[in-house]
Design brief:
Elements (H helix, E strand, L loop, with lengths): L1 E5 L2 E5 L4 E5 L6 H7 L5 E6 L5 H13 L3 E6 L5 H14 L3 E6 L1 H14 L2 E6 L11 E2 L10 E2 L5 E5 H5 L3 H12 L1 H15 L5 H16 L1 H6 L2 H21 L8 H13 L5 H15 L4 H10 L6 H4 L3 H14 L14 H10 L5
Parallel strand pairs: 3-10, 4-5, 4-6, 6-7, 7-10
Antiparallel strand pairs: 1-2, 8-9
Helix pairs in contact: 3-4, 6-10, 6-12, 7-8, 8-10, 11-12, 11-15, 12-13, 15-16
Bound molecules: zinc ion (ZN).
Length: about 350
């Protein structure tokens, strides 16, 4: 924890204590748990799609090292399911919770760790969005589609071999989530200038860097493999760190995220988070007067959808999402303004950027 005292205000920053990114490192978890003094009872949460080989092998390994390990499956990202699971985890009385899975599993583990006030280790098996390392959690069925504040993971163990074996679509989505930082930071600056909102240059630069990283290495990312995973994973961790420093999702989430959340409400989570965010980034870059064609070119290169059709929604869903996005989180000022886009303006943006016909 770092105390930053500027102009009389106190700014508290919580960061992960240990971040390990590399090949074949999953079995360093016992060392990390020991080093950080996290006790011996590990509730390991994993997803139905995580390869049994990975989770069972790790549980057996930790068991052989003398830990008490309970392996539990997160059935869905729905709040009701996660709450049921929370009861089981509570009965086990874990000293630490390990989230071994994709974004949804990590979110569930983070939520339960927050409820039980237990430390949480993130071991992502996919690099699909920056929730794998951030201090914010989002679940479905909470009555809101945006995220709530939690603690950051005490440690992040990103095994590149494991992540590289996840479907390519998830990696592209992770890169798409990072592209969104361009417009997120532009929105943040706008809110600072127009509304006097707190703005942290360091957090903004760090977040922006993760988006630039995706652009600079888009060739490598589009080829897939270990190097691609490393680049995206480092970007996701960097963007999460920006959120830790700012103490909010501001550096990582602006109008492009509001659009994605609105689309989730309108079309019931039609595509992956990062895919929707990338689509939103194209249109919000246009509204900001930036080089949206470049964003679209990169998105295409990364294999991301760039039209309504490609993410499986109707043209009118896109327009509806554009006109209602500003209401998702009214206190978050963005390029969409306080009253949002009119239907006509929204239709024009979506047509001009060729998201719809
Ligand atoms: Zn995101």
């Amino acid at each position: 924890m770092v105390l930053k005292i500027a102009g009389g205000s106190v700014h508290i920053i919580n960061l992960p204590k240990k971040v390990i990114v590399g090949s074949n490192i999953l079995k360093r978890i016992d060392g990390v748990i020991y080093e950080l003094g996290l006790g011996s009872r590990i509730a390991t949460l994993t997803g139905p799609n995580v390869k049994k080989l990975v989770s069972e092998d790790l549980v057996n390994y930790l068991g052989a090292k003398g830990f008490d390990v309970e392996l539990l499956i997160v059935p869905s990202p729905q709040l009701d399911d996660v709450k049921l699971l929370e009861d089981t985890v509570r009965r086990f009385r874990p000293s630490v919770i390990l989230g071994l899975g994709g974004g949804k599993v990590i979110d569930a583990a983070k939520y339960i760790a927050l409820s039980l006030n237990v430390d949480f280790i993130s071991a992502p098996t996919a690099a699909s969005h920056d929730g794998v390392a951030s201090p914010f959690v989002s679940l479905r069925g909470t009555g809101r589609v945006t995220s709530v504040k939690a603690k950051p993971p005490i440690a992040i163990i990103a095994d590149l071999d494991v992540i590289a074996s996840a479907p390519r679509r998830l990696l592209s989505a992770g890169a798409g989530d990072l592209l969104g930082k361009f417009t997120a930071v532009l929105d943040w600056r706008l809110a600072h200038r127009l509304k006097g909102e707190y703005y942290g240059e360091y957090a903004a630069s760090l977040s922006l860097l993760s988006a630039k990283h995706v652009i600079n290495f888009s060739d490598v990312i589009s080829r897939g493999g270990i190097e691609a995973v490393r680049i995206v994973m480092e970007g996701l961790i960097s963007s999460s760190t920006a959120m830790c420093i700012a103490g909010s999702t501001r550096p990582a989430s602006g109008s492009e995220h509001l659009f994605s959340h609105a689309l989730d409400v309108i079309a019931n989570y039609p595509a992956l988070h990062g895919e929707q965010v990338a689509l939103g980034t194209i249109m919000m870059s246009y509204l900001h007067g930036r080089n949206w064609k470049r964003i679209r070119r990169i998105a295409r290169k990364l294999g991301l959808p760039t039209t309504a059709k490609e993410i499986g929604v109707r043209d009118t869903d896109i327009i509806k999402a554009l006109t209602t996005a500003h209401r998702i989180r009214p206190e978050r000022y963005t390029i969409l303004g306080e009253s949002g886009l009119t239907w006509r303006a929204a239709e024009e943006v979506a047509k001009l950027t060729e998201v719809i016909n």
